[in-house]
Each structure stands twice: as C-alpha cells, then as structure tokens.
Design goal:
Layout: H1 7-23, H2 27-34, H3 38-49, H4 61-76, H5 83-87, E1 96-98, E2 105-107, E3 114-118, E4 126-130, E5 143-148, H6 157-188, E6 190-191, E7 194-195, H7 200-229, H8 235-259, H9 270-277, H10 279-283, H11 288-302, H12 310-317
Parallel strand pairs: 1-3
Antiparallel strand pairs: 2-5, 3-4, 4-5, 6-7
Helix pairs in contact: 1-3, 1-4, 4-6, 4-7, 6-7, 6-8, 6-9, 7-8, 8-11, 11-12
Length: 322
C-alpha cells in the first residue's frame, strides 16, 4: 500500500479546490439553503467542467483515488451536492447511495429523479424515485425520502461500499477544514493579553483533533487500497472506516466548535455551517452503534484482513490472531 495519493488525484483536488473557492467556498452552502436551485445551476456545471462525468471510481486505482480526493475537497467547503453518490452512478446516470434498512432516505434526494439504493447489511436493494420534496430540517436541509420504483438497476454491494468509502473521504475533508478554522480562530483571538493558541489547554485540544484527522486519513487511504486489492472482502474495512469517521467527527467537531466559543454554533462562522452540513453523512445510512453491529457481523462472516490480522485469523482458526 502506498499512503500517498497519485499525482493525478492531487491535481484534480487542487483544481476542485480552486473551482469551489470561485463558487464562494462555504458561502455556497449558505446560499443553497436559501436557493436550492443553485445546486443544479451552479454546482453541477462546475463538476462537469472538472470531468466528474468521465470519472468512475470503479475503473482503477487512480480514478478511485481521484474520486476520493475530489470528495475530500467537497467536504472542506460543505459542497451542497451528493458527490459521492453521483460518482458511483449506473449506466443510466442514476446515483448510488447506501440507505437505512427498511427506508430510503438520502441527502439531496430531489436532485435526481431516480436513485440506486440499498442497505449495507446486504438485504434487498433496488431503484427508488424521489418524492420531490426535502425535509428541510436544521441538520439536513436537503435530506429527502425516496419511494420504491420499477426498474432494472439493483445496486451492487461493491458500489455501495465504494460510495460509503467516498462519503468517509467527504467527512475527512470537513474535519480537516474544521481543525484549520479552529486553529485560525484561536491564533487570532486574544484573551487575557495573549492569543488563545498560547494556552496549553487549547494546544492540547488542537493536537488531539489534528491527530484524529491524521489517523482518519491513514485509514481512509488504506481502505481505498483494500477496495481495489480485495473487492469481495472489503465490507468490514469500509464499515471500520465509517465507524472511525463517526468517532473522529464527534471529537473533532466538538473541539472545533468549543474553541470558537459561542460563535461555534452561529452560522456566521464557517465551522457551524460545515458541522451542520456534514450531519447527513454522519447519520445516514446509520449511526455509530448500528455501524459497530454491522462491523461485528462482517468480521464474523468474512474476517478482517486489516492492519492487524486478528479478524481473519479468528474466523479461520477460532483463536485470536498473533
């Protein structure tokens, strides 16, 4: 495994960062809440110019890495668009998304007339159509429900895993930006005659958050490699990545908002908007507890050939790995 992304992926991420900055950076998410139509009129054309329509993360290592880097760039600005789902589309252009078992709820549901959806527990998957209305909740302004639809477009389990891996990269981008915003805030904010960044307690919080983001980045890169090296056995790896992303997000976003003080929950500050906009990725298709349960089932079924071999050894021999 090479922990470094290919040069092509890095170049695409840089181009995406410039394009998203030209759209307004985090302000784009604020504008989209007021006028949701800009997702189709402004965001979609920029993604087309970046070549998203020609990028299929299932093709090879480079395109998978490029898709991951693109999703990370989107997460950094809370891009109001279901990029991970759109990248894992079927030949008819339907986006693919993992959904809660027994329900079909996705972010930005009404942007596409039909979706390929399925739960991560391996149960029935298929095509669903948009109801045409978002729920407009504070923690998911673009989340909407889908209804089952007739059509030949069953979501392959591997496609759902790729989509969830890309969602984790989106979360990674959001957390990395949250740490950067918190660092900038405490560096410029003066209390008791000196910047907040000079206080040891603040430094500890920032260090813990930075380490959490770095750890998530390493695991996200490892999971990309696993998806290509062992596509039929990567379910546990993707679930482990999701679980770690949820745990890291809880700690990092809490610290980032706390370091902003009361301003951390005010939408005039970017950290608040990023925290809100990443919530659908953290809550759908399932939270930490359900993810942990599914991970345990995946390990029991398939083993866990990850950084440590105990999962695979346990399944094969009944004894803990050495």
């Amino acid at each position: 495994m090479n922990p470094e992304l290919p040069a092509e992926a890095v170049e695409l991420a840089d181009a995406a960062a410039r394009a998203f900055a030209a759209l307004g950076d985090v302000d784009l998410a604020r504008r989209a809440e007021v006028d949701p139509s800009i997702r189709a009129t402004e965001v979609a054309p920029v993604l087309d110019r970046l070549g998203v329509a020609d990028l299929d993360p299932r093709d090879d290592d480079v395109t998978l890495a490029a898709a991951a880097a693109l999703c990370e760039a989107a997460g950094r600005v809370a891009l109001p668009y279901p990029l991970a789902a759109a990248l894992v589309r079927d030949p008819d252009g339907r986006p693919t998304a993992a959904v809660p078992a027994g329900a079909a709820r996705v972010d930005h549901a009404e942007l596409f007339p039909e979706w390929r959806v399925g739960p991560l527990d391996g149960s029935a998957a298929g095509v669903a159509s948009s109801t045409g209305a978002a729920l407009h909740t504070r923690l998911g302004p673009f989340v909407g429900d889908l209804t089952p639809a007739a059509g030949d477009g069953t979501a392959a389990p591997y496609d759902l895993l790729v989509q969830q891996c890309l969602v984790a990269w989106t979360v990674l981008g959001a957390l990395d930006r949250a740490v950067a915003l918190a660092t900038g805030h405490v560096t410029g904010r003066v209390q008791f005659g000196r910047p907040l960044a000079e206080f040891q307690a603040v430094q500890f919080q920032l260090a813990d958050a930075a380490v959490a983001v770095a750890g998530l980045r390493e695991l996200a890169g490892f999971t990309l490699w696993r998806l290509r090296a062992e596509p039929t056995g990567a379910r546990a790896d993707v679930l482990a990545l999701r679980l770690h992303a949820l745990e890291a997000a809880r700690a990092v976003l809490r610290s980032a908002q706390q370091l902003h003080g009361a301003a951390g929950v005010c939408d005039e500050y970017d950290v608040s908007v990023i925290t809100r906009m990443v919530q659908p990725a953290l809550r759908l298709p399932m939270g930490a507890e359900r993810t942990a349960t599914e991970l345990a089932r995946a390990i029991a079924s398939d083993g866990f050939a990850g950084l440590f071999p105990h999962g695979a050894d346990l399944r094969a021999t009944g004894e803990p790995g050495r």
